[in-house]
Amino acid sequence: MNHDEQKIAEIRKALDAATPGPWKWIDPGGYDRKKLVGEHEIMNFGASMSYLEFAGQEPDDADAHLIANAPEWLRFLLDELDRKDEENRKLREELDAVAEGYRQQVKLAGELMDKLVSAQVVDE
What we know:
This protein is mainly alpha-helical. It has a domain at about 5-90. The chain is built from two helices and three strands; from the N terminus they run αβββα. The protein has helices spanning about 5-15, 60-124; strands spanning about 25, 35, 40-45. Strands 1-2-3 form a three-stranded antiparallel sheet, with helices on one face. Helix 1 runs antiparallel to helix 2. The protein is rod-shaped, with a radius of gyration of 31 Å. The mean pLDDT is about 85.
């Protein structure tokens, strides 16, 4: 397995182990901060009154959108990669068949040229 294949396998393994989705950010309001939830709660930024800022900040809307959609988007890209790999495999098979047909035609042309040259030598 090459480096790219190892990385793709690592991504698939991580996605399979992750909390099932879809993931979404919810803002319960009040003293509670945003939570990332899937099948169950994934991440909770605590209550705003007791939340310690040095522990990190809750993501802004753009980051939250990316984080929540990452599993679905990664699965889509991996599926697309699989589809392209399969398409590439089929095209390679077709190309190999065409190349083999071309090799056969070249071989036949060589044999015909040999016969033609032999026939000309005999006629002389």
